[in-house]
Structures are given as C-alpha cells and as structure tokens.
Amino acid sequence: MEHIRPAIVTLLMLLLSGLALAETPEQLYTQMYAKNESMVRSTRDFADDLAFAEQLISASKQLKGNKALSALMCEKAASLAGRRPEGLEIATQAHQRRMKLDPTQTRDALKQIVQLHNNAYRRARGAARPAAGQRLIDEQVKAARQYEKIKEHGEAASLYRRAAGIARALKSPQLDALTEHAERASDLANALRTAESLKSRVQRNAGDTGAYRELAMIYLGELTNYKQAVTHAEKSGDQQLATIAKLHTKGIGNLEKDEAVTLADWCTATANERPSKVAKVQFLSRAKLAYERFLSVHRTSDVDRLRASTALADVKSNLGKLKPTRIKTTRTGSSVATNPNTPKVKGMLYAAGDYYLTLRINGKTVCQGNYSTLCSAEVELKDGDIITAHVRYYDEDFYDGTLGFWCMFVAEDGRRNSFMTNTKQWRVYSPANERNWSEVNPKGRHSAPVIARPFPVKLSQVIRQAPGINSVDALRGALLWGRASGADTYFFHQVKIR
C-alpha cells in the first residue's frame, strides 16, 4: 500500500507527463487511497480515521494541479471524520476547503456542515446541550450568510428560522436578532420571486407600465441594482421615477446639492410607502447619505440647511429602529468539548520533533517546531481530546526509515494529569502497511515498530527553554519513534483525565 506522500509525488509526476489527464478524480483517488481508506474504516480505533482524514486534507493542499481531485479528497476526509463527535472539527474543516476548491460544491458542503453540528446537538445531553446548541446556531448563521452571498435568500431565511427555534429553546439573547434576519432574508427571497414574476408579465405584455414601475422600485429597494432600475423606470413612462433612478446611479459624492436634496426627499417619502422592511432600510440609508451630501456642500445657515438637518435627524432615528441587530457568533470549538462537567485541566504542552513537528489538538494546530526549536503551547485538555504529533522529514535522501518526537504536558497545578511520550499512551499511524499500526492489545503491550528510547536532548537545555519546569524529575519520559516507508508519521494520544 502506497504511503500518502509518495502517492502525491507520483500523482504530480503523472500530471506533468500528461498520463493522468484522462483519468477522473474518482479513478485517481481509487488508485492512490482506496486501500488506505478501506483499512482505516475496518478498524475499531477512530484515531486512525482522523489521521487519514488529516492526511487527505494536508495532501489536498500540496496538490495544485487538480482541484477536482483535491475537492474529492476533502469530501472523503469529511466522510471519515464526520462519523464520530471527535471528528467534528476536522470534518468541518474539510467541507470548508471543498467550498474554496470548488464553489459549485458550496451548497452541499454547507448542508453537510450544518447537519454535522445538528447531529452533535441531538446527541448532547445535560449541561452539554446548550453549548452544542450555541455551536449549531453559529454554524447555521455562517451558512445563512454564505447563502446570502450567492443570492439564495430562501435557504438563508430557513436557516435563520431554524437557528431562532434553537435560540428560543435555549432562551438565548440572540433570538430577536435571528428573527429579524430571518424576516430580512424572507423579504429578499420574496422580492426575487416577485421580480421574476413581473419579468414574465412584461414578456407577455410589453406595454404593462405598472409591472415596469414595480420592477424599478424593487431594483432600487430590495435588490439594489440601479442600472436595471433605470431600464425598467424608463419603460414605465414615469419620468420622475426615471430621474430618481438615474440619480441613484450617479453616486452620492457626485450629486449637486439640488440633486442630493431631491433624492433624499424622495427616498424618505418612498420608505414610508414600501411594505418590505428591507426596502425601507435601503431607502432610508440612501436618504441619510443624500442629506449628508447636501449638508456638506450647502454651508449657509439658512432655512434649507435647517430643514435638511431636521430631516436627517428623523431619518437616522427611523433607521435605528429598523436596522436588524447584528448577530454575534461565539465560536467555542467542538460542542462536545464545552460540557462544563467534562474533566479538564490547564497546563503547558512541550514537544520536540525529528525533524519538523506540528502538534494539534482535535485537528487544530497549537504549535510547530523542529529539531532545534522547542514547540510549546498553553492549552486546556479534557477527556477525549486527541493530540496529534505530525512529524516530517523532508530530506528523503538521508531518511533512515524512522521518525520520532518527544512530548510532555505539565499541569498548571504541577501535580496531576502530567504525561510524557511512551508506548503505553501513544499510538502511531503510517499507511505504509499494517505492521505500522500500534494498538494496545489486551495485555497492554504495543506491537512493533513503535519504540521508546531515552530522550536524547540535554535536560538542562529543555529546562531553560520551557518556563515553569524547575525539576529534572519532571522530565522522565522517552522519545517515541515510529517506523514508516515514507518520511511522514502521525502519533496519537487520547487524553484521559484522572
């Protein structure tokens, strides 16, 4: 079975030579990774699923010439990691990368992300449920904003309403803001539907001036497409509307003072007539800018300036009442991790790698180092956290077939929950062959080729680099090695708080 890094090199060579161009992403994935995926799915240990998912995401970043394959690799990574709560962050990250690689997958990726967090919320019990619900709300809001960017306001409205339902159950202060945003998105969705209906009307009857006028109003209000508004206003036969539409296209900074006050007065009056709150806000916002433009060029303290100043104050007051409240998302990490009853402990994580090391907790990078730089981070660990040490050796000409690292956690209180690298706590994953798996057997032993060796770095040097370590006794442990056919190894430790 090929190692993932050599597989990437092989793929790049094929792409450069043109031999792989005729193959579909699915065929290329099957050739390189199908056996690896089958292997990790066949084991009970979920850490290997997370390892392979992380490797797929990492490999997709190295692969520059085939976005379709990269997106498929991320989709497979999300499928692997998303099966269990521990993989929530990695699966979410994979779906987010899918969207960047292939915008046509945005809709599906957003649905998958929301579903992942919805599943986490449904599974949560007791004190963990509010945190899981809040995280789901955050993801629904982010998805709704993405839908708004691609003009799918109906989907956005649905997500805001679902988020509001959860906020209501949680008695969240976000409820009012979510309800307002749901109404706004619904107004925009209705405006788009109405515009399409009106376009059909004028196609059937080019003399339907009323339809043209309403189209112009929608494009000036909810849809803010001023060029389209001018086109429809001119066909409506309403000369005043056509003039106003043209003033919208001119730009506030280019308006003469008479034009500015004309536009401001019209927008203020129109805001009171339109039923949609979105349109009201849009027209009042435009009126505010136009009045401010007038006051900036009309400096004389006369009746006109007093009138404009008074009107501006009224517009600001009404606008403040109508503008939707901003939704504040509160990223807290995995909803499973926020259970206040889950045992947790704060402290410092230290590590050194052979030769380049990235240390992650639940898929999130916390620090990076190399053979000459100590990797350290202040962290809070809890039951079930998975610490990943990704060790890389880039000079394969001198690679001897082994990679290792050393890691230590020192609890803040200096007494409990500290650990070091050793073969009883850590497992290694490298997809070269099945012998490269390290698993605890019923007797607590580990299979080869994981080896614990005495830590070779001078302890006094580590003490100087790691503030808070004041005793050589605290550094009892080992450098953990894993044998692999390629210069890329992942080590895992699942935290258990005692």
Features:
5-stranded antiparallel sheet; about 55% helix; 6-stranded antiparallel sheet; single chain; elongated; 16 helices; disordered N terminus; about 500 residues; 3 domains; alpha+beta; Serine Threonine Protein Phosphatase 5, Tetratricopeptide repeat
Alpha plus pi helix count: 16
Beta-strand residue percentage: 5-15%
Number of domains: 3
H and E order: HHHHHHHHHHHHHHHEEEEEEEEEHEE
Q: What would CATH call the class of the largest domain?
A: Mainly Alpha
User: What characterizes the major β-sheet?
Assistant: 6 strands, antiparallel
In words, what does this structure look like?
Helix content is 53%, strand content 14%. It folds into 3 domains: 4-188, Serine Threonine Protein Phosphatase 5, Tetratricopeptide repeat (Alpha Horseshoe), CATH 1.25.40; 202-322, no CATH class; 343-494, no CATH class. Strands 1, 4, 6, 7, 9 and 10 form a 6-stranded antiparallel sheet that branches. With 498 residues, the chain is of the alpha+beta class. The two termini are 39 Å apart. Residues 1-6, 15-22, 331-340 and 430-478 have low confidence and may be disordered. It contains 16 helices and 11 strands. The chain has helices spanning 4-17, 25-42, 46-62, 67-81, 88-101, 106-123, 128-149, 153-170, 175-204, 209-220, 226-236, 239-250, 257-273, 277-297, 303-322, 459-465, and strands at 344-354, 356-361, 364-370, 375-382, 386-392, 402-411, 419-420, 426-429, 451-454, 478-483, 488-494.
